[in-house]
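For practice. Any example?
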Amino acid sequence: METKKYSDMNEHELRSEIGRLMEKARKAEQLGIINEYAVYQRKALMAKSYMIDPSTIIPGEIYKIEGDEGVFFHVDYLKGRFAWGYRLGGERAEEALPIAMLQSVKTGK
């Protein structure tokens, strides 16, 4: 079976893929295979990034980082499904995060 790229999948296919990956992650976690668990979690995050309209992520804005409570990310620019920028309060090291990790700090979003 040929694997489709996330960019070629429709929303239904992406949702199925995310479910499949999360199930594999759950099984890996139960078996104590932490590195495999992390890989499936990251793949699911990337698939979720393809369900988000990149135009909803605004360069210059600050976002919360999902799964990293109390940490904020300043977006400098977007490249594909990644937001490039830096974490606030850190050494301002540039990094890229999948856009699915970003949550608006504005209420109601």
About this structure: Residues 31 and 37 are 9 Å apart (CA to CA). The radius of gyration is 15 Å. The longest strand covers residues 72-79.
